Amino acid sequence: MRSWYERLAGLPLILGVLALWETVGLAGWVNPKILPPPHAVIAKWWEYLTPPQPYDPEAESRLSWLFSGELIQDAEGSLYRVLAGFIVGSLLAVPLGLLMGASPRVYRWSNPLIQILRPIPPIAYIPLSILWFGLGNPPAIFLIAIGAFFPVLMNTIAGVRAVDGIFLRAAQNLGASPYTTFRRVILPASAPYILAGMRIGIGTAFIVVIVAEMIAVNNGLGFRILEAREYFWSDKIIAGMLSIGLVGLAIDQVMSRLNNHLLRWHRGLEH
Predict the structure, then answer these.
(1) Which of 38, 96, 200, 220 can pair with 78 through a Cys bridge, CB separation 3.0 to 4.6 Å?
(2) Is residue 28 a part of any domain in this protein?
(3) Any idea what the CATH number is for the domain that residue 247 is in?
(4) CA–CA separation, 74 and 109 (whole Å)
(5) Domain tally for the chain?
(6) What pLDDT does residue 143 have?
């Protein structure tokens, strides 16, 4: 009961904002072409979600018909790019972060280059990504991997370097080898930092995918918003933004539950 109360605690504020927005629209205080009221946005969002053709049981299965809407296809394309880029970026960032955090020598060699590249936003790589990979999914995945790489890397380094020296000395005094110390002490102790970095990284990846889809691909939520802008479909722009928010919320909830499951042993998540 308490869990549901906590989840719905912010609902009155959302309903209040929607009511104010609807009142402003119905009163005519704002041009509906510029800011359409919520009922128009919801109607467009439903049109965007539902399949364009009526269900024909002889032509296709019910399931394939349900997933033939434009919004579903765009969301699938965006999620594919987010997951592919996030996996690539994380697979590169976690081993490098563990190595840089555990080895002062590797950290001294690598950190200057990392600190030069880290402030460069992924958007700045768009011209190079198109030159290197052309159009389509490859440049988008490349940009997303860059966006996810640095949050995961920096959190991994911070996690390894934050391991209490008492634990390391205790492991050494008990005769643990460097590999055992790394596997049984450093890696578990840094896991909360790594998973926090992944949660930030996948959020960044979802931001980057919207920009990448406006430039390099011809489907996805970002592409659909850009298309709606060209035709001045404000209701579809906001419907696309709403879809991005809902998908982003779902991804964050999945990452939060995954973190809680993997760190259920960690102090503070026991209850």
Answers:
(1) 220
(2) no
(3) 1.10.3720.10
(4) 42
(5) 1
(6) 92
> Range of 232's domain?
36-50+66-262
Cα–Cα distance for residue pair 184/178, rounded to 1 Å: 10
Q: Would you state the structure tokens that stand for residue 128, as one six-digit string?
A: 């190079």
From start to end of 30-140, where are the E strands? none
Residue 171 CB contacts under 8 Å (≥ 6 apart), including other chains: 180, 181, 184, 185
Q: Is 1 a member of any domain? A: no
Cα separation, 167 vs 163, whole angstroms: 8
Question: Which amino acid, residue 6?
Answer: E
Question: Is 18 contained in some domain?
Answer: no
**Cα torsion 68, 71, 72, 76: sign:** positive
Buried b (16+ CB within 10 A) or exposed e, 65-78: beeebbbeebbebb
Residue type, 137: N
CA distances (Å), origin 215, targets 124, 198, 218, 221: 12, 25, 9, 12
Q: How far apart are CA 99 and CA 57, in angstroms?
A: 57
Kindly report, residue by residue over 56-88, the tens digit of the pLDDT.
555 555 545 444 567 888 888 888 999 999 999
Please tell me the pTM assigned to this model: 0.80
139-194 pLDDT per residue, tens: 989 999 999 999 999 999 988 888 777 767 777 777 777 777 777 777 787 888 88
Segment 227-252, tens digit of pLDDT: 888 888 888 888 888 888 888 888 88
What tokens were used for 271? 């209850």
Neighbours of 181 (CB within 10 A): 19
